[in-house]
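Assemble and predict.
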Amino acid sequence: METVLFRLRLPRIAAAMLVGAGLSLSGAAFQGVFRNPLVSPYLLGVASGAGFGAALAILLSESLFLLQFSALLFGILAVALTFGIGRFYRGAPTLVLILGGVIVGAFFSSLTSLIKFVADPYEKLPAIVFWLMGSMARVTPENLRAVGPFIGGGTFLLLLLGWRLNILSMGDEEAKAMGVNAGKERAMILTICTLVTASSVCLSGIIGWVGLVIPHVGRILVGPDHRRLLPACLALGSAFLLLVDNCARAATAMEIPLGILTALMGAPLFAWMLSRKKVGW
Amino acid sequence: MRLEVRNAAFAYGHGDEFRWIFRNVSFSLEAGSVFCLLGPNGTGKSTLLKCIAGFLPLREGSVHLGETPTVHLSRREFARNVAYVPQHHVPSFPYAVLDVVLMGRTPHLSYLGKPGFRDRRIAWAALERLGISSLAAKPYTEISGGERQLVLLASVLSQEPRILLLDEPTTHLDFGNQIRFLEVLRRLAGEGMAVLMSTHAPEQAFLAGTTAAILKEGHLSPPASPEGVITEQAILDTYGVAVRIVADPSGEAKGCVPLRSEK
């Protein structure tokens, strides 16, 4: 009984809330920095990189630790590559970053497909596919202790940066004119978000939708001001993913991948909210 | 506080695409003056303002704030003294007007600081000064372009700068708001602010300017009083159109009236 509670249930609850909060806040920060409500924290390629890292590890070994480490490593590497591509070009810095993300994302997605293609279709392939769809089933107290602090710490830092995000979202020159070193602060915020999302992905696989939509739900409820939006995302994101994870675990006899359910439950909810209130962005 | 531009030059590109935008631009902006920068489209007025604001690097020369070269100042220190309003602002999220005005307080806040009661009071005063306090709670994405320009001005006023850089600030304003806007600039200058604004309307220089200069083909004419700089010949040389400069007998009002081109 105690084992179930402390080894399985509690870590899983904590992980679901951490990941939900981390992805939501990163999403809000990404949308603010890029001044675009349609971007998600996976914009710069962290998910495709991590997906490739995980698939590679599944292909080559059985170790859960190696899987998660490889996902984290390649997730961060992908974003670093995106920044590197951005360095080559001058011009609108955010646009170049987005293009870099597209390039890196496509590259790693192809590599992942290649691994799926060569993987053993009876054991390895389902494991890869299942991982890519996201799940909280592999959370243990050990791996939660290893990456949880990154998610929690990064999320906490983002919470403090609400006013800076307001300023950055006004535009590059506007922010500079208000005394903000826009380039540096943007890079710093994106680095924090990347640590948070890469850690989330390494813990739970690729969970889409949360980072894109929770910020919108937050804006509908509390408005666009990041000083209020970020705490709202913290509450909404952690509650939403906890709820969805409960459904994933308990709704049917077999566990449903989380990434499927976030959209399946979130999409109608979001559509309903859109129809209820005018969305502001 | 005095802003001085010394032998400034700016160019785009490298190698074959290298192109000077302006060279040997020197002038100083004194406290209490309204400096009107005139010149044809695409002549580099905005570029010059951006160079002064530190968004674009000068190829030659320097900008000094008091005795300090601005390249030695942090963005924050610079922003406490110099505010800048861009010609075009693309709004992003529907922040309340008051929040946008509050953003001007940022260089006075600590890094993780948020605006407090005193900042709010300064922001309100800026809104009231421009007569737009009724907009305070509205989303700034849903007001007209002219109102938004006034909101951005209110924002830089709450920044409490000593120098204002305005890039064609009256473009979207209706006639009444243009005049009221210029009156505000004049009063600010009367309180010791230095204003540098680019404009396409010579009348604005007559109405509010203490100094004017024309930037044309990469060269800045010697700054002087608007009456001295804006002559019928100068307008013809600059814009290629014939005008008559007319003044009413009292000498209070002065304007440029375009002449019909002769057949």
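The CA atoms of residues 68 and 202 of chain A lie 5 Å apart.
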